[in-house]
Amino acid sequence: MFKRLIIIIFAGVIFIMAVSISVGFGTNINLNKKSNDKGYDVKPSDYVGFNKTSNKEENIKVYITKTKSIKQISIENYIVGVVSSEMPAEFNIEALKAQAIAARTFAVAHMSVYGGKPYNHGKGADVTDDVECQVYMDKEERIKSWPSKDSNEYWNKINEAVNDTRGQVITYDGSVIKEPLYFAISSGKTEDSKEVLGDDEPYLKSVTSEGENVGHNKYKSQVKITYLSFIDKVKKVYKNSNINYSNVMNSVTILSRTKGDGVKEIKIGNNTITGVKFRSIMGINSTNFVIKYNSDNIEIDCTGYGHDVGMSQWGANVMAKNGKSYSDILKHYYTGINIEKLYD
Predict the structure, then answer these.
(1) Which residue, 57, 168, 287, 302, is the most exposed by fewest CB within 10 angstroms?
(2) How far apart are CA 224 and CA 156, in angstroms?
(3) In the beta sheet, which residues pair with residue 301?
(4) Which pLDDT score is estimated for 214?
(5) What is the value of pTM for the model shown?
(6) In the chain, where are the structural domains located?
(7) 118 HSE (CA, 13 A, CB side)
């Protein structure tokens, strides 16, 4: 992860936003839950780590939102459906392999049969098939969404990526990592999980992610909003805010930035909030933004697309095209990890 319309967060104020990429690219997994007032998403520590209660391929229980039913799917078939939905099939095969391992790791971390903790909103399932977890489509549904001339080639390519990494998961210090987060497009550096999630995961550190400024129209984005709409969005969340039409320009101040250059804290009137929360309120693409004031509107210019924690999908493809293997990609974006085989 992220496609998707995403959001943020956990307990407290319930907040939902649509900020990711469309289905097929950039789920930004797991940054789409209820939010607390700080704007943090559900933390990795809310999940139970894998404990090797099984060493064979098991079925994953998937809540199908369309039919409101639970479907049991072999994990490898599930991963094919996730990769086909979360990353463009046109991407380099090594990037697709990296995506397959990240998706499989996420699944295992939520499967009770492997000692993981099922997703809370799964209604008895391990995961959901939508942006709440990872988007999953079966073969029939996914092929219909691709150009007919390319659909079989795409499906076979994704199957190859999944088969070539069968059973492989990401581990840190002997355990499967709990949150193999991924997102669409970096602004040039990824974020440290502590600065975005509030949870210091050793494998989710800020790293460089080069070459993403070429070839994708989501790398840079701009939102223009009237002064009154800006104020209205703020006051829907912070009813006691003293921001008004006459003081907007003097009432909004970026206080600090993260290692990845995202906004860490921003002051709006008498409220100081995180950049993550501001992103949610305004529905913008990333926390790496600058604000400009025009005569009739406020302009918010963003760099990157997604929460910027973990693996950049676009960056993974850049690395793959430059000759890096899926192992190189994963070990770059997830600090200090290993890739291990859970089952044959």
Answers:
(1) 57
(2) 42
(3) 222, 290
(4) 79
(5) 0.83
(6) 44-185+308-341, 220-303
(7) 16
Q: Count CA within 13 A, CB hemisphere, residue 152.
A: 1
Residue 131 vs residues 113, 241, 338: alpha-carbon distances, Å: 23, 32, 27
Q: Residue 32's pLDDT band (boundaries 50, 70, 90)?
A: very low
Question: Is residue 186 scored above 50 in pLDDT?
Answer: yes
Separation CA 138–CA 125 (nearest Å): 17
Q: Assess whether pLDDT exceeds 70 at residue 344.
A: yes
User: Which long-range contacts (C-beta less than 8 Å, at least 24 apart) are formed by 333-336?
Assistant: 333/182, 333/190, 333/207, 333/209, 334/170, 334/172, 334/177, 334/180, 334/203, 334/204, 334/310, 335/202, 335/203, 335/204, 335/205, 335/207, 336/172, 336/202, 336/203
62-112 tens-digit pLDDT: 999 999 999 999 999 999 999 999 999 999 999 999 999 999 999 999 998
Output the six-digit token pair for 317. 């493809």
3-class SS string, the chain: CCCCCCCCCCCCCCCCCCCCCCCCCCCCCCCCCCCCCCCCCCCHHHCCCCCCCCCCCCEEEEEECCCCEEEEEEHHHHHHHHHHHHCCCCCCHHHHHHHHHHHHHHHHHCCHHHCCCCCCCCCCCCEECCCCCCCCCCHHHHHHHCCCCCHHHHHHHHHHHHHHCCCEEEEECCEECCCCCEECECCCECECHHHHCCCCCCCCCCCECCCCCCCCCCCEEEEEECHHHHHHHHHHHCCCCCCCCCCHHHHEEEEEECCCCCEEEEEECCEEEEHHHHHHHHCCCCCCEEEEECCCCEEEEEECECCCECEEHHHHHHHHHCCCCHHHHHHHHCCCCEEEECCC
- Altogether, the residues listed in the chain come to a count of 344
Instruction: Note whether 238 and 266 are within 8 A (CB).
Output: no
